[in-house]
Amino acid sequence: MPFVANLTPDTSGVAGWTEGDFLRALHEGRRPDGSALLDAMPWRVYGKIGDVELKAVWAYLRMLPPTPKGKR
Fold first, then answer.
1. How many domains does the chain have?
2. Would residue 2 count as lying in a domain?
3. Within-domain flag for 1
4. pTM above 0.85, yes or no
5. Residue 69 banded pLDDT, cuts 50, 70, 90
6. Gap between the Cα atoms of 41 and 9, Å rounded
7. Is the Cα torsion angle 13, 18, 20, 21 positive or negative in sign?
8. Which of 19, 35, 37, 43 is most buried (most C-beta within 10 Å)?
9. Angle at the Cα of 1 (from 55 to 40), degrees rounded to 5?
């Protein structure tokens, strides 16, 4: 089973990310620091979704309560 990333706005998740970081990650497969996303993350598929829809996903993720890794 691959590692599952924390997509909540917690410091162990995407708290420091911007909407632009999120869009870049899904379009280019890179985190804000430039490191590659794991191959298990289907960013190539999600990156084909339009920016309007991806921005809606980002808005939803930002509304989630910050949940520390391992507490989900």
1. 1
2. no
3. no
4. yes
5. confident
6. 18
7. negative
8. 43
9. 40
Residue 55 lies in a domain: yes
Q: What is the pLDDT of residues 9-54, one digit of tens each?
A: 999 899 999 999 999 999 999 999 999 998 888 899 999 999 999 9
Residues 49, 55, 18, 42, CA torsion sign = negative
**What is the 3 state secondary structure string of the chain?**
CCCCCCCCCCCCCCCCCCHHHHHHHHHHCECCCCCECCCCCCHHHHCCCCHHHHHHHHHHHHHCCCCCCCCC
Count of other CB atoms within 10 angstroms of residue 9 = 17
Residue 24: domain span: 20-63
Cβ neighbours for 67, distance < 8 A, ≥ 6 positions apart: 6, 8, 10, 13
